[in-house]
Amino acid sequence: MEEMLADYDDDSVVVTNTNGSFHGLDEIRTLFEGLFAEFEQSGVDFQQDQQVIEGDIAYITWNAETPDNSYEFATDTFLIRDGTIETQTLGAVVTPKN
């Protein structure tokens, strides 16, 4: 967790299509705690489909299967300035398995 958060600071923002926005390290930690809990389970299949880096922008697409959800399509975009993720967007089409 600490290694992940080292890329963010108190001014960072993560915007998601399912859970709203997370501002600063404390809120971003809360988001990642939930994601880590899901993606650290046994039987998770994660596939990164695309990665593009253009200057300060990084863009990835991915899909995944967890015991709880099917991530049919997901995308993250990162705005990185001075080695810190200033803004991240996370959009996903998620189908619950329960």
Sheet/helix structural class: alpha+beta
Strand order of the largest sheet: 2-1-6-5-4-3
Could you tell me the number of beta strands?
A: 6
CATH hierarchy class name: Alpha Beta
User: How would you sum up the global shape?
Assistant: globular
Strand fraction equals over 45%
Helix content: 10-25%
The tally of helices reads 2
The radius of gyration over CA amounts to 14 Å
Q: Within the CATH hierarchy, at the fold level, what is the topology?
A: Nuclear Transport Factor 2, Chain: A
Element-level helix/strand string: HEEHEEEE
| Low-pLDDT runs | none
CATH architecture: Roll
Terminal Cα span: 27 Å
Largest sheet: 6 strands, mixed
The average pLDDT is: 97
Number of domains as seen in the coordinates: 1
Task: Itemize the secondary structure elements and their pairings.
Layout: H1 2-5, E1 13-16, E2 20-23, H2 24-39, E3 45-54, E4 57-65, E5 69-81, E6 84-96
Parallel strand pairs: 1-6
Antiparallel strand pairs: 1-2, 3-4, 4-5, 5-6
What does this structure look like?
Helices cover 20% and strands 54% of the residues. The protein has 98 residues and is of the alpha+beta class. It has a single domain, classed as Nuclear Transport Factor 2, Chain: A (Roll), CATH 3.10.450.50. It has a 6-stranded mixed β-sheet with strand order 2-1-6-5-4-3. β4 and β5 (69-81) form a beta hairpin. The protein is globular. The termini are far apart.
